Amino acid sequence: MKRPKLTSLIKCLLCTLAASIAGQTQSETLLGYRSYFQYNDKSSHSVFQTPEDYTVFPKHELLQEVRLNVQQGGFNMLLNGVHSTRKNKSNEKEFIINELHYDFSMADWDLSVGKKILGWGVGQAFRPLDVIQREDRRRLIPNDLEGLPLLSIELFNESDSHTLLYANRTHFDNLKATDQRHELAYKYYRLQGEWDIQAVAHWSEEEYLAFGSGAAAVINDATEVHGSFLWRDNCLQQINNLIGSGNTLALNNPFVTKNSGSCIKALMGFSWSEPESGITLLFEAWHDGEAHSHSDWKQQLALAEDQRRLLSITAAPEQAVYLNLKADQQFYDQPILMENNVMARISWQGERFFPAFDVLLTPEDRSVILTPSFTYNLNKNVNLLGALRYFTGASKSAYNQIADDMVIFIGIDISFIL
């Protein structure tokens, strides 16, 4: 049997790609501007409280963004120029390529190559199956996400789909790649009656293997249920090396990333909506094995209390104490702080006004976060946004001891289609 020549195969591939490009006619260019003002109210009772020169977050900040979103056929680009002004801090400017990718089809396959925002899984506050994007879904300011360089291949059938992708989680320093982490992932999706079913598998150089599944279903006109589960072979946690070392102060940053062994992430939730009234209720409970345990928090709190006691000793180096208390606040530097969480949310959808209120509780230490928020649609191009996040709970709880006990932000979002 005569084999086809390599040149013939290449020509066939190029013809298929050209036909794919010709069939993609969608075009849209969006220019946007966002301006947010954020105020951080410092806690008067936090063990991590420090003078203003040592604070992690400034008392107030003005953030301005200009973004350009271009979609031309299969070509997609999202750019952000960010300028931030902070009290007693130098202004910062940043240019971010959030997305830059090309999508095309070849036969029954859909392909995507480039930097892309890609979220997987089900859930409002937390998504265990979001193994690629790993979005902080409870961030207060709704800024654009930054995608990952990836290559994905998808095969769709009438009721299911298969997705295989490679991602490169690269970190840059002055335009030089300093750290590259390779990842492979697979997602299976199936529509089975009223149920949307997902299954994922993931491998990365640091975390090794992960497997999980999830499902969501609309039970009736008003009620939806969802849940997901993920097992990860090698979970990473931020650990304070001072804990258990016998030392109270560190000369350098004491926080390091360590392997904590295998862990589980799981979520269950439901929502209820009343279309006539516009009211939606949401309830979710979840466990994140990569977050801090109650024991972790008690040890970190005890260390911070020991450090603060040194301030009453005249010979203690005050600067060193405050620098360590500032470093201790890295304990809070993760989207999900504590392992076990419960959240309830009520929202209302009007013609222009969209208020919401949610309560997050961590049962083990009785921490509470209260977040009222709103969006007001001034017209088709302009939205006003605002939110208040209040940290409270038992006196020795993690959220009650956070250095900023209240955060307020108000903003405007303007966008035009060119």
What does this molecule look like?
The radius of gyration is 24 Å and the shape is globular. The model is unreliable at 1-22 (pLDDT under 50). The chain is 11% helix and 53% strand. A hairpin with a 3-residue loop joins strand 9 (195-204) and strand 10 (208-218). Helix 2 packs antiparallel against helix 3 (318-328). The N and C termini lie far apart (56 Å). The strands form two sheets. It has an 18-stranded antiparallel β-barrel. A two-stranded antiparallel ribbon has the order 12-13. The chain has helices at residues 6-22, 294-309, 318-328; strands at 27-42, 60-72, 75-86, 92-106, 109-116, 148-156, 160-173, 176-192, 195-204, 208-218, 223-232, 236-240, 255-259, 263-274, 279-288, 340-348, 353-362, 367-377, 382-393, 404-417. It has three helices and 20 strands. It is mostly beta strands and 418 residues long.
Secondary structure layout plus pairing:
Blueprint: H1 6-22, E1 27-42, E2 60-72, E3 75-86, E4 92-106, E5 109-116, E6 148-156, E7 160-173, E8 176-192, E9 195-204, E10 208-218, E11 223-232, E12 236-240, E13 255-259, E14 263-274, E15 279-288, H2 294-309, H3 318-328, E16 340-348, E17 353-362, E18 367-377, E19 382-393, E20 404-417
Antiparallel strand pairs: 1-2, 1-20, 2-3, 3-4, 4-5, 5-6, 6-7, 7-8, 8-9, 9-10, 10-11, 11-14, 12-13, 14-15, 15-16, 16-17, 17-18, 18-19, 19-20
Sheet bearing the most strands, described? Answer: 18 strands, antiparallel, barrel
Give Rg in angstroms.
Answer: 24 Å
Percentage of residues in DSSP E strands: over 45%
- Based on CA inertia axes, which overall geometry fits? globular
* Residue runs with pLDDT of under 50 for 5 or more positions: 1-22
The SSE order reads HEEEEEEEEEEEEEEEHHEEEEE
What is the overall number of helices?
Answer: 3
Which structural category fits the helices and strands?
A: mainly beta
Percent helix: 10-25%
Total beta strand runs: 20
Integer average pLDDT? 89
In whole angstroms, the N-to-C terminal distance is 56 Å
